[in-house]
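Q: I'm writing up a methods section and want to include an example of the input and output format. Could you take the sequence below and give the corresponding predicted structure tokens, formatted cleanly so I can copy it straight into the document?
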Amino acid sequence: MGFLIRLAITAVALWITTLIVPGVEVGGRSGANTVLTLVVVALIFGIVNAVLKPVIKVIGCLFYLLTLGLFALVVNALLFLLTDRIAHALDLPFRVDGFWAAFWGAIVMTVVTWLISVVLPDSVDDR
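A: Here is the clean output for your methods example:
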């Protein structure tokens, strides 16, 4: 149940990101297609972050230290771009127009996800 809540939070954050950040777009013929696209892209984004982010943190540890953590913003943008590439390969109507759209999109995604998580705490106890 916790996984589905996190997936829904990520999908809503992604939708809000498409509304705020120019260059991050989701399309579809109908509202149902758009919702399905948001959920699938949120799933892709979650998998990309779960698999690659820990590896990148270990490999790029020195860059994180030298930049006082600002390198994380670049990593998040690149992971957001990778999500776009995977969505494109799966023929999903989700587009990120370049690095800066991905940079701001990743920041908005992080902030919105955090805000939603604060408002809607997990109902599932992870113990």
